[in-house]
Amino acid sequence: MANPRDVLLRPYVTEKTTAMMADNKYTFIVPLTANKIEIRQAVEQIFKVKVLDVNTMRVMGKTKRMGRNVGKRPDFKKAIVKLAAGERIEFFEGV
Predict the structure, then answer these.
(1) Which domain of life is it from (predicted)?
(2) Boundaries of every domain in the chain
(3) Rounded to whole angstroms, what are the CA distances from 4 to 9, 33, 69?
(4) What is the pLDDT of residues 32-89, one digit of tens each?
(5) Residue 56, CA atoms < 13 Å, CB-side half-sphere
């Protein structure tokens, strides 16, 4: 993927990921085809920080029902990025 903004789709903010920010770990939704190297380069280019580690996981969408109609939420991939000590992403502050 050429553009780093195509790799990081959006931040993934939950109660758990907000607690992880204290340990310099930030979570993003990324395309299913993105790999760890692309994710690392995208975070470093966009936010101008030093990335120590990238962990990825694929989350399968849940099956949901509305009466007799059955649907499925989309699958997605999330990346947990650990930054070097002293580095911060200001984008997440106050979220």
Answers:
(1) Bacteria
(2) 4-85
(3) 10, 13, 38
(4) 999 999 999 999 999 999 999 999 999 999 999 999 999 999 999 999 999 999 999 8
(5) 17
Nearest to 84 by CA among 30, 37, 31, 25: 25
Mapped to the 3 state alphabet, what secondary structure does 5-55 carry?
A: HHHCCEECCCHHHHHHHHHCEEEEEECCCCCHHHHHHHHHHHHCCCEEEEE
Residue 26: both structure tokens together: 């930030």
Region 8-27: mean pLDDT is 93
Place of tokens 């966009």: 46
Could you say which of 3.30.590.10, 3.40.50.300, 3.40.228.10, 3.30.70.330 is the CATH number of the domain covering 4-85?
Answer: 3.30.70.330
- 20's tokens: 């992880």
